[in-house]
Amino acid sequence: MPAFSSKARPKAQALQARLLVKRSAPVGEFKFPYVPVDPVARLKRAILEKVERERNATFAELAHIEGFAGNLDIVNTTANVLIWMGMSAEAIDAIEQLQRENLIHLAGSSWLVYSWSGGPVPNLPIVKHRPRSGRFQKMHWGPTALVAGPAPWG
Fold this sequence. Notes:
The structure is a single chain. By secondary structure, the chain is of the alpha+beta class. The chain has five helices and six strands, in the order H-H-E-H-E-E-H-E-H-E-E. It has one domain. The strands form two sheets. Strands 1-6-4 form a three-stranded antiparallel beta sheet. A three-stranded mixed beta sheet has the order 2-3-5. The longest helix has 17 residues. The protein is globular. The N terminus is likely disordered.
């Protein structure tokens, strides 16, 4: 004798199909209508809010934003200077777009600000002056802050 009678089988299949539909969308993941959010736009908004609220922010403070961390670095290859490390491509794009829109600019900072904020400090010599030849022979770290508003030098 089969486990299901011919009349019970369609009900069991319908119940199984409903259960599969419920399992395909975890609870709390999204609600309909679902509108996908651009990760760069979300990071731009979060970075700008942080910078405007505190008037400036270090990269170490921004690393706490979801989606900011990654495996890319910002390096000034002309001068051989590391600006910051461990960023996502979306975070770099967001910062570049904010700079192009004159909403933020980068300014020199102190390594003490980074150590006070509890962020990592790269184990590199710190930039204290411009190199005479225009380029450091060894990689240096330039502590940098993001400041609200356009750059004062244009």
